[in-house]
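Please review this pair:
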Amino acid sequence: MKGDSGKRHLSPWGRGRTFANAGEGAGEGVPCFVASVLTPLTPTLSPWGRGGIHTSLAAAILVCLSAVGAHAETDHAALAHDALTKVIRPGYDDLAANTAILKKTADALCAQPSQAALKDTKDAFAATVESWSKVGIYRFGPVNKNHRHERLFFWPDPKGIGLRQVRTVLAKKDESVLLADTLAEKSVALQGLPALEYLLYGEGADTLATGAEEIGFRCGFAASIADNVDRIAGAVAEGWREGAEDSKLFLSPGPADPLYRAPKDVTLELFKAFTSGIELVRDQKLGRPLGESAERARPRLAAFWRSDLTFPNMAGNLEGVRTLFAEGGFAGIVAAESPGVEDSILFDLNRVINILKAVDEPIAEAVRDPAQRNKLEALRIALKSARDTAAALISQGAGLSFGFNALDGD
């Protein structure tokens, strides 16, 4: 991009990229000098270094966008089709495949208890958590019916309601939880992955491998939850099949549809999943356990802390966000608004995901380790930068009907 001096101005996104010239769409000679809002001619980088996004860029991008005139109209129908066929449907199919394995291994554990069978069940549980994490950012469609989302994942649970209910069932040996049909009629806190995690990893879980008579109830309870989870996952996957009611409403909204009256409403639904998915990790899954200090950290507020799947769960949520952005159409909107910025958003998301996957200590230790705390706080900064920047450009490019500032969770 050339200014009055005729020199190229580097953008904060990294060496070799320049800011988009708004004049290309709004009339000649109307360059978008975001660099002047920050430090002229000096790349402003994220905590990761070259290539990332600095937190202050959100305001700068809004200044830039105010200068942008006409741009290509977003094809909202095509965006919905890509999101469903490339992201949502494959994600739930993967979840259903893993819950089927979980059910099978849990049944095998109860039939022939052993350390190997317990390990197989725990491995299947971890795979289910991984696949669930990638679609757990969605709160619409089939998963939003019959309390399926809450039945799969009753969290957050700051008061420990689920734990108390599971322990009560174990103490009383309430046999009505041993069949998925009757379990499905009980509290959502007894039906999903957090309850199953306690049975597999909580106090007394190692005895599942012994086959002792008194352990039979616990194993039966676990197998019933696995069955219930598999049924729910299967129902959600079927609800997104081609020709299913939810798929048709998602792809062909209309005035009579109470949820989506126009294709743009579907884009807004996906946009909320994208932004809230980042906020879920940043504010709830990282922020709450970290607390204000190491002394005030609350690691047991974290999801899946017993199974040491806390960080994989967060990484999985962000992988779902990244896939929605990259393959669901949002990256294209960002690229049309400001070429190159989509790569920087992906850079920060990839960096955060890789760091979360590399954490090799339990959440209880990580939140009290000064070095690790600093690293995790830096992740929160990077996530805010990625969210704010992407939200500004997507809402502008897609013509969404609300202000970006309304999304600010701080």
